[in-house]
From TrEMBL:
Domain L,D-TPase catalytic: 74-211
Family under the similarity heading: Belongs to the YkuD family.
UniProt-annotated catalytic positions: H171, C187
Keyword field: Cell shape, Cell wall biogenesis/degradation, Glycosyltransferase, Hydrolase, Peptidoglycan synthesis, Transferase
Top-level division of the source organism's lineage: Bacteria
Pathway assigned to this chain's UniProt record: Cell wall biogenesis; peptidoglycan biosynthesis
PANTHER family per the UniProt record, alphabetical: L,D-TRANSPEPTIDASE (PTHR30582), L,D-TRANSPEPTIDASE ERFK_SRFK-RELATED (PTHR30582:SF24)
Presence of keyword NADP: no
UniProt xrefs under InterPro entries: LD-transpeptidase, LD_TPept_cat_dom, Transpep_catalytic_dom
Single GO MF annotation: peptidoglycan L,D-transpeptidase activity
Protein name, UniProt field: L,D-transpeptidase
Any single GO BP term: cell wall organization
Entry GO terms, CC: extracellular region
Amino acid sequence: MGLCAALSLTACVVAPPPEPQPEQTIDGIPVSQIVPGYERIEDNGYVLPAVPAGYLAGVNRRAVVPYRGTVAPGSIEVDPYAKFLYWVQADGTAVRYPIAVGREGRGISGSFSIARKAEWPGWTPTANMLRREPEVYGPFRNGIPGGLASPLGARALYLYRGSRDTYYRIHGTNDLSSIGSSGSAGCIRLFNQDAIDLYNRIPDGTRVVIRSREDSVRIEGPLMATRGVQLPPFYSGEGQRPPVPQAMVPDEYYGNPAAQAGVSYIPDETDIYGVDGAPLAAASPTGVEMISTSYAPAQG
């Protein structure tokens, strides 16, 4: 009887639940937080880390959207004010990519054609860059070979007018924080994952049209047409800067200019960038925890 009782008691003992296992991470990002389309990429012997979700909030990520511009299907339209690039489709949609616009890109207008495409291109500053800011570009006068350190990133599309190289480029970038904002240098920049995606879609000879400020405000709305800040130069050796909250306009305002009336970014004590783009606080180790995105109708 005693043996039977002991066996019965043993059968009633419930094993403790297993210890929770930490979630797998890739490039320091929990797998559940990796945004589709922005995963880690191994390409031509180089490794591009996954883009942390903090840089991809709101409208600041690739998406297929209804196209509301006037450019013909098969063309690219660049909006340097709302910081979007559209690859226009025949079905009335477009692939929308978030972009950064450098100093050279802010002076761009009119139309072009893509006469050359390059994978992992090298970069050499133009004579104009060397003359304008010798202290910045002088050390690179002999160029930077293609690779992870190249300012042109993983892909570059070269914009021509006829047979003339305009020296404008659509290219990848290592500066994640710049996407959705304006920078002190460069042309039209994309996340490297987006640069590869666009490169794979478009043929040589694709037409590129630059949207005017008036059309940007009319089509995108006043909030979208002024999103982002002006950022100071980025030096890759310093590590990534935090995301820019002013670039992360919520999706609810996209494609709805009427809803944007009177809405603006509301700064608070957690802000990390001033109106001039200068950091107000040190970056966190991963560059994603310090983001605060608050948009609301202006008071008064």
